[in-house]
Design a protein that fits this description.
By secondary structure, the chain is of the alpha/beta class. It has 14 helices and 14 strands. The chain has a seven-stranded mixed sheet. A seven-stranded parallel sheet has the order 8-7-6-9-10-11-12. Strand 1, helix 2 and strand 2 form a beta-alpha-beta unit.
Length: 384
């Protein structure tokens, strides 16, 4: 019930902000009749594509849309080739109507690409997080930007809990010992701890942050959160989490910091050298939000010095991360490719959400309120 009240209050905030007002002056959303060219940008499934019929988030799966779209007479192009002037995506920019992308293999939609896309009406994110799009340029061009809000929040929150435990228990060195044929208990035990009693703070407490706090409650941690607004009082009481209005006051208290804030111009580079220096020596950091929230080199330096005792996440800047990205080689990291929000369960949810929004788009109907990131020339509150 508490989560429902939070979602309801968020929708009311959208409405009261004027964000939901339709405007034909700004929006191309309703120019939706006739045959459309839809381009999807996904990662390649390769040999794994045929191993699971529900593996929809790859090029081969195409978000499960091909048969349905083509049965309606629409053209559907799917590719993973998205970078550079000669890439496959660039060839379709001038005449596509809808572009579908994911945070896991993002098609970076720049102001330049938007300017070239004369027929573009709709940008859909198959998942959550639309910062790969120049949202201000999209708003100025009258485009609609939407994502499948909530589709992978459980997946990401569970992944964050896993990463916290991996870092706290110093899991990776022991796993690497098994692979290399070693047996050195001391090499793991000297920095392995219990999670119980530790102070965990989440920077940002939206849907994912709240789910994480609920999952941490049984571990008897001291839970803190920083956000633009306080959470529902009942949920705050249930989790025992304490609101911290000032981020720099909260951070020095934390043994573990989890980043759950969207990437905006305000949060880009938020964790720079100075802010990291304010944190406890030996702090553990989990970041499944966005790589650009962190100053890349500041994280490397702090891991190398031991100020950050462990860093784990699945988000990079840029994505895919180049082979020489320094986070691949820094000590005490437990990084993965961007996978936390693309479990098979999440793929089924965001594929269904994309299909629903496309169906509404073809009919000239509104999307679910919470899915809008840009509508009628205005950005959602979290991106302002």
């Amino acid at each position: 019930m508490a989560m429902k009240r939070v979602a309801s209050s968020a929708i009311n905030a959208f409405a009261s902000s004027g964000y939901l007002r339709s405007s034909s002056r700004f929006s191309r959303h309703y120019a939706s009749s006739g045959r459309k060219k839809i381009v999807g940008v996904f990662y390649k499934g390769n040999e794994y594509a045929s191993m699971n019929p529900n593996f929809l988030g790859c090029v081969e799966g195409g978000c499960g849309l091909r048969e349905w779209l083509e049965s309606k007479g629409h053209q559907y192009i799917v590719t993973d080739d998205k970078e550079g002037p000669d890439c496959e995506l660039e060839k379709h920019i001038p005449d596509l109507h809808v572009l579908i992308s994911t945070p896991f293999h993002p098609a970076y939609v720049t102001a330049e690409r938007i300017k070239k896309a004369k027929n573009l009406q709709l940008l859909l994110t198959a998942g959550v997080g639309s910062d790969h799009i120049d949202l201000n340029a999209a708003a100025a061009a009258g485009l609609t930007v939407a994502e499948v809000t909530g589709s992978n929040v459980v997946s990401v929150a569970e992944d964050e809990l896993m990463r916290i435990l991996i870092l706290v228990r110093n899991f990776l060195p022991g796993h690497h010992q098994v692979i290399s044929g070693e047996w050195n208990v001391a090499g793991v035990a000297y920095r392995a701890y219990d999670l119980e009693g530790k102070t965990v703070g989440t920077v940002g407490c939206g849907r994912i942050g709240k789910l994480l706090l609920q999952r941490l409650k049984p571990f008897n941690c001291n839970l803190l959160y920083h956000d633009r607004v306080k959470m529902d009082p009942q949920l705050e009481k249930e989790t025992g989490a304490k609101f911290e209005e000032d981020l720099d006051t909260m951070l020095p208290k934390c043994d573990i910091v989890v980043v759950n804030t969207p990437l905006t111009e305000k949060t880009r580079g938020m964790f720079d050298k100075d802010r990291i220096a304010k944190m406890k020596k030996g702090v553990l950091i989990v970041n499944n939000a966005r790589g650009a929230i962190m100053d890349t080199q500041a994280v490397v330096d702090a891991c190398s010095s031991g100020h950050i005792a462990g860093y784990s996440g699945d988000v990079w800047n840029p994505q895919p991360a180049p082979k020489d990205h320094p986070w691949r080689y820094m000590p005490n990291q437990a990084m993965t490719p961007h996978v936390s929000g693309t479990t098979i369960d999440a793929q089924l949810r965001y594929a269904a959400g994309v299909k629903d929004m496309l169906d509404r788009y073809f009919k000239g109907e509104d999307f679910p309120v919470q899915n809008y990131i840009v509508k009628a020339g205005e950005l959602a509150p979290q991106y302002r």
